[in-house]
Design a protein that fits this description.
Distance between the termini: 61 Å
Structural class: mainly alpha
Strand content: under 5%
Radius of gyration: 34 Å
Helix content: over 70%
Number of strands: 0
């Protein structure tokens, strides 16, 4: 087990590097390496330290060095790499994770396991044999069952995935082999797409220049699925390591990639899809906590309506047209929820997570590699679960556009346990929805862009499921644990330079309540779009939600310059002033609102509350009466009005209001306040009774009552209560309990 010194200081070294404190980071890394007795790494750290010392020496002597900044960044990048090597070495000893278990196994079997190149050769041989078998079977020959070869090929593919995922760094012969996989059109595209995912998994474990370059090359390829998978892997990696300096090779390769006409549209598309993943948890929670429980409530009514229906097509159709169904859905609110989910699905949001989250317990999903496997109906696991109509089901599922590959495997594996009749009904529903969505997708096609968006959407759903549902998910860095804002990645930020894409991204962040990210994009939008009241309003609102009220007010004032009578802006300015305890300004904004909307009960109530806090009770009382006139059913003005009447000495009118309040779900504070009225009116016995009720209906402790009494003491004294009487009340209430 690694010493506490090592485990405590590895994160500290990373903090030093993130803060560009290179000398401190190198000193700490050298100390950690010496503790870990990794002498080769120690020597590398010393070389970086010496190079840094020379660079600083030239700088202090005033030597002109145009390459100094690039060298500094290169040294920081080298230090990050040494930190990764140290972390991996220390963790590989006993960290109980799948990644390090694979490393330890490979070390134990050193020299006994085939190389990556040998595994690839074995895979190619196996798929050649299975292809020959299928060709012979198609010509009417019998060559025996090829299921053994198929399973062997799948096992080798899984091993190749695990090897590429866990090898570090990916260089030398291994890098050449991976490059040959990506370049070979003779290999199955599912295998090449799977390899891209293995490269990504390794990159998200540790930064690796070669992996980034390989993904960049794959992005430039002609195969849409492979290109989009590589793009997502590249972007997730660049986002994770956004604080690290990039090497010249990476910068040059990405610069070439950015020159492609597809790049900017890909960045916009991918950013929007990544934002939509943030809404998955909300959709999942709503499905679990609102929609499904409501459907379960309706189930008895639905089942009753099925009792008298004969099992023929005509009766089923009449059931679909029955207006009672409409009443059930409308009455429960389900129709609105289902409509919302339908619209979200068409936009690309993940509405299927809740449905399929319970179907990830099959042994198939115990392997990391299977979560990123492109759907292949020829997989042996699906053949074993297949029934007589397997071919039809496979073909249908492959055409369902709203299921990601992981969910397709879940569905196929689960169908084996469903009776034939129910399976047929489910397939009919999928077929109808698949056909409808296919027609809509065709109508909305945009020169191939829809294909790339659909591929990105599906693969992100696969990745999201892995990081949220895999049984050992806590062992992995989760890229979706934080918002993925590509504009925060220096190497990608310059791809967002047009107003319209920035506006779309900002609005989507805003819609999903990602206010911190929306704020950064709206601010960037101001660099490319004319300023407007709406942009300043939304910047202000983002700041307000972050509790930065002074900054929010400044933005609202900018919006006010475009329209001084905008009700929404004035409301927010009043709310921010109030939240910042600037009641004078808040009252001024509420007065302006009241002039604009004199019959708005809400505005009148807010102004009255603000004036009451300013102890302008006379004006506040008039406004409270106005609110009761504008909205006779509202109980909101009663309590503050009763209190204002009390502190201004109008005890009888205050008592009348409190008696109305006590008749409808009174709170402990209501009993306390009417007790104050009784006390100020000279009815001490009645006051004690109300105080006792306040204590017994709250936490039952006299301490709480004493604290509240102390807070209200100035108001009691203003109402004429003798100061010497107030301390005695606590004991009087105590004895009355």
């Amino acid at each position: 087990m690694a010493s506490t010194y090592i485990t405590d200081n590895l994160p500290k070294a990373a903090e030093y590097l993130n803060a560009n404190r290179l000398r401190e980071a190198l000193n700490l890394l050298k100390s950690i390496s010496e503790h870990a007795m990794t002498w080769e790494i120690t020597d590398s750290i010393k070389r970086v330290d010496e190079a840094y010392a020379y660079m600083l020496g030239y700088m202090t002597r005033g030597t002109d060095d145009p390459g100094r900044e690039e060298m500094h960044q290169s040294l920081i990048a080298d230090a990050y790499t040494l930190l990764d090597r140290l972390t991996r070495h220390v963790s590989s000893k006993d960290t109980p994770s799948l990644y390090y278990e694979a490393l330890r196994y490979r070390r134990q079997m050193r020299g006994q396991l085939p190389s990556l190149a040998e595994q690839l050769a074995s895979y190619e041989s196996l798929i050649d044999r299975t292809s020959l078998f299928n060709l012979a079977a198609g010509d009417g020959f019998t060559s025996g069952d090829n299921s053994d070869e198929t399973r062997q090929a799948e096992e080798v593919q899984d091993n190749i995935f695990d090897y590429i995922w866990t090898v570090y760094p990916l260089n030398g012969q291994d890098a050449e082999t991976v490059g040959s996989i990506l370049a070979s059109e003779a290999l199955p595209r599912t295998f090449r797409a799977h390899t891209v995912s293995a490269i990504t998994r390794g990159l998200l474990e540790f930064f690796d220049e070669n992996r980034i370059l390989m993904l960049a090359d794959a992005v430039a390829g002609n195969d849409t699925e492979i290109s989009v998978r590589a793009l997502i892997g590249l972007v997730l990696g660049l986002h994770k390591y956004r604080n690290r300096p990039l090497t010249r090779r990476i910068k040059d390769r990405l610069s070439a990639l950015k020159d492609s006409p597809q790049w900017d549209s890909d960045m916009k598309m991918l950013q929007l899809e990544l934002i939509r993943t943030r809404d998955t948890e909300r959709i999942n929670d709503k499905m679990q906590n609102e929609v499904i429980p409501e459907m379960m409530k309706l189930r008895p009514d639905i089942m009753r309506k099925f009792k008298d229906i004969r099992n023929d097509d005509e009766d089923i159709m009449s059931m679909e047209e029955n207006p009672e169904w409409e009443e059930l859905l409308n009455g429960s609110g389900l129709r609105d929820s289902l409509k919302e989910f339908g619209e979200l699905q068409m936009e690309g949001s993940d509405v299927m997570m809740s449905t399929f989250s319970h179907l990830k317990s099959f042994p198939f999903f115990h392997k990391v590699s299977h979560w990123f496997m492109p759907f292949d109906s020829e997989r042996s696991e699906l053949k074993q679960a297949a029934t007589g109509d397997a071919t039809t089901v496979n073909e249908l599922i492959q055409r369902v556009p709203f299921l990601c590959d992981s969910d397709k495997y879940s569905l196929m594996l689960s169908l084996a346990n469903i009776p034939h009749g129910q399976r047929q009904m489910m397939m009919a529903q999928f077929e109808a929805q698949a056909s409808q969505m296919a027609r809509e997708a065709l109508a909305a096609s945009m020169s191939g862009q829809v294909d790339r968006r659909a591929a990105a959407n599906s693969y992100l759903h696969d990745a999201y499921r892995f990081y949220k549902l895999f049984r050992r998910k806590r062992e992995f860095y989760d890229p979706f644990a934080e918002p993925i804002n590509l504009i925060s990645v220096p190497i990608l930020a310059d791809s967002f330079h047009d107003a319209e894409p920035l506006r779309l991204i900002a609005e989507l962040y805003f819609r999903f309540h990602a206010y911190e990210e929306a704020l950064s994009v709206f601010r960037r939008l101001l660099e490319y779009a004319p300023p407007s009241a709406e942009i300043f309003q939304k910047i202000g609102y983002c700041l307000e939600r972050a509790g930065q009220y002074a900054e929010a007010l400044e933005q609202y004032r900018q919006a006010e310059l475009f329209n001084a009578t905008n009700v929404w802006t004035l409301r927010r300015m009043a709310a921010c002033s109030k939240a910042a305890s600037n009641l004078e300004d808040a009252s001024g904004y509420y007065r302006r609102l009241a002039d604009l909307k004199p019959d708005d009960a809400g505005i009148a109530l807010n102004l009255a509350n603000t004036l009451a806090q300013l102890e302008m009770y006379g004006e506040a009382i008039k406004l409270y009466y106005k609110v009761t006139f504008l909205d006779e059913k509202s109980a909101k003005p009663l309590r503050p009005l009763a209190w204002c009447l009390f502190v201004t000495g109008e005890f009888d009118r205050s008592r009348q209001l409190y008696e109305r309040i006590l008749a409808d779900s009174p709170t402990p504070d209501d009993y306390l306040n009417i007790g104050h009225v009784a006390l100020a009116s000279g009815n001490i016995s009645e006051a004690i009774n109300y105080y006792r009720l306040s204590v017994t209906t709250s936490d039952g402790t006299v301490d709480t009552f004493a604290s509240k009494l102390a807070q209200d003491r100035p108001s009691l004294e203003r109402a004429g209560v003798e100061p010497s009487t107030i301390p005695l009340l606590v004991d009087a209430v105590f004895y009355s309990l």
